[in-house]
Amino acid sequence: MNIRNYRQLRGFARERLDAAPAYGRIVMIFAGIVLGLCGVMTLADLAISLQMDKNGGLSGMGNRATLAAIQNVLPIVQTFVTLCLEIGYLAAILRVARGQYVSPNTLRLGFDRLWVLVRLSLIKGLIFMGLGIGTLYASVLIFMLTPLSRPVMELLTPMVEGASILGSGSMVLDDASILAVSQALTPAMVIWAVVFALLAVPLLYRFRLDQYIIIDKPGIGAVAALRESRKLMRGNCISFFLLDVKQWYYYLAMAIASAVSYGSVLLAALGLELPLPGIAVYLIFMALYLALTFLVYRFLRGQVETVYALAYDSIRPEEKQDGAVLGNIFRM
Asked: Within the chain, where are the H helices?
């Protein structure tokens, strides 16, 4: 199978999905749990915020601290549960792409790989955080060594001249000065964004297949999965990028759904206002977001993910087997 032949991949994906009668139940369960959890967490966060507003003053400080701790823990729980379900869904899609037996029990696979997923997320987070800090330092250095920094120096020089560590003078920045300095620093942020993207995007594509590898190799570690992904993606990064471009409709649909979730903010930015309480407007747009995302998952995501699974199988080296290997079909 040719990874560069998108029509072939898409045709095979459609055939595999049509031949998997259990996929409809799988995507309904997956979307229902993920989006239902998102809705429950949203309502819980809103309820906690309203309760914190009622517990004002010094007497309610303890209750507010407890509620704030719960509010901070809820997104973490949601992230890990969603991550595990995503891996389970990806495992199901991989089996569909290979024409293998699949059932809703496959969604449980991610919970069996929880600690590997946690380590993998932490390692990738540290890598990209380090890359972000390093590129920020380099971008500021480039900015300061070019004429682009002249407006910032012109703003800060008069403030610094009147300030002294030993004397009574101090550098005071009012709101207007802070805004002017922030605007003057815009070129530095643009430089950082460009440099970070030039380094982060190729690195992101090199790590693109780590989750597939964790599914295929249960005993593999997080670092080994990243190393294996980098090895498989050598010479294939451009092909996967073009595959992403050709599936633009899916990413556009997800972007529209995400934009709907910020509908109340967008209305306020446009100076528009609905004749409803603010909480009601927020909940309406959140419900629309969940409904649109459910439709995208149900009708678009399966084919898109199957295409990616077929692309992964097309570059994955065939494993030699001395005999038949029978898995536990009751967990598949």
From this structure: 6-18, 23-54, 61-97, 109-112, 114-144, 150-161, 175-184, 186-206, 210-216, 222-232, 237-246, 248-261, 263-269, 278-296, 302-315
Q: Give the number of residues written for the chain.
A: 332
| Residue 11, φ and ψ in degrees, nearest 5 | -65, -45
3-state secondary structure of 320: coil
φ/ψ bin of 235: left (φ > 0), alpha (ψ from -120 to 50), beta (otherwise):
left
Domain boundaries along the sequence of the chain: 6-317
**Radius of gyration (Cα) for the chain, nearest Å?**
25
What's the CA angle centered on 175, arms 171 and 180, to 5 degrees?
85
Say how far apart CA 65 and CA 53 lie, in whole Å: 12
Digit-coded pLDDT (tens) for 246-300:
999 999 999 999 999 888 888 888 888 888 888 888 889 999 999 999 999 999 9
Among candidate residues 103, 27, 24, 21, the one with its CA nearest the CA of residue 329: 103
Give the span between the Cα atoms of 284 and 307, in whole angstroms.
34
> How many other C-beta atoms are found inside a 10 Å radius of the C-beta of residue 226?
20
Angle at 94 between CA 89 and CA 99, to 5 degrees: 125
Distance CA 212, CA 229 (A): 9
User: Residue 167: which region, alpha, beta or left (left: phi > 0; alpha: psi -120 to 50)?
Assistant: beta
Kindly report the pTM of this predicted structure.
0.85
Element of type H or E holding 205 = helix 186-206
Residue 3 neighbours by CB distance under 10 Å: 19
Q: Are 291 and 252 in contact (CB under 8 A)?
A: no
